[in-house]
């Protein structure tokens, strides 16, 4: 075969040019920070603003490549194992095997640019396009409970939407958060992205979070955490997405597959030691099936404690705190107990069990603090109810209007429908473990930023955009 020498020369020049560009990019990527980590929040914000300004000139194909780079670096087995192990070691919460699942899930099932569909309307008056445009630079506050998972899914979604992001990680997840952000920046740099699309500060703190929220250059705030931080961002005067607390109830009626319901509930409740805000927190079981449900829960790793032991445990896992504003004393969950193993919690009240115990169950009344508080630990109170009306009434009250997540095990379509309408939650899981609601063993995409208070629900790239309309009157239509 004869090959034109000019064609060969042209190909060689293109390859050399591409390699030179990638090399130059790799050399210049840090651009003032340590792979996205800055000493000053102002410097981090300024770097992100500059990066996003450059990013606007990149194509949708480029965005897809950068999203894939984030997926690839997280899914690298060495990286995946390291951030999963470090998250448990640093925070003292959850389990390594669950962090592996959640980090992989965030990398694989968080939507990219495919989420940004264009709407078109054509008619006698021409053509109108509605497209999804970036906000600019987003400030994202991430929790200690799901630190890496939230950074992964928010980085993918926010960059797919064309934004840059300034992260304010929880101080108690500092090491793993900074490491992950640096990994992401190195991967983006290698893929040819602008430097500093994903940034943070070397010393995360409340002060730095406040410094991130105030600059006009930050166009949107996204808070994943408790009620206090969500309230703060919602009063910032900026576009805000609040992924707040939940207290997901579970109803089990007498039409359910009780054996399966017991297994599903324990599997969901113990997933990462109940850290996910979607996890089962309290059960309302019909009285005529409650004993059977408890029997099968025990077969799936649950340990039943007495009412006295439940009261003793409540004194350990809930501590009193005086509100600075009102002076009132309230009970809050103890940080040392959040996300801990069931056997560790039982040991705190002198009960010795093996590692095969995954969950602590107990029968309580509706007013017990285990029912009313979102515990985020593998403790599951069970309240007996006489009928569906009572079950729905109590479950809705226990959910406290968070409109976050609820679950039900039933084969009665009317019961399922009535509860779903009454509770109005963002996620409603039927006859499955809670994690099916975020795409693990269930259909649909995943996220670890579930925005109930502000209504975005299961966030994705589209959540981090604003709509823009382009109108061409009389033209660009073929009818």
The largest sheet has its strands arranged as 11-14-15-10-9-16-17
Number of strands: 20
Note the total helix count.
16
Percent in helix: 40-55%
The shape is globular
Radius of gyration, whole Å: 25 Å
- Sheet-strand content, in percent, reads 15-25%
**Main sheet properties:** 7 strands, parallel
Q: How does the helix and strand content classify structurally?
A: alpha/beta
Low-pLDDT residue spans: 20-27
Distance between the termini: 50 Å
Q: Give the integer mean of the pLDDT values.
A: 93
Overview of the molecule:
By secondary structure, the protein is an alpha/beta fold. It is built from 16 helices and 20 strands. A 7-stranded parallel beta sheet has the order 11-14-15-10-9-16-17, with helices on both faces. It has a 6-stranded parallel beta sheet with strand order 1-6-5-4-7-8, with helices on both faces. Strands 2-3-20 form a 3-stranded antiparallel beta sheet, with no helix packed on it. Strand 9, helix 10 and strand 10 form a beta-alpha-beta unit. Helix 3 packs across helix 7 and helix 10 packs across helix 11.
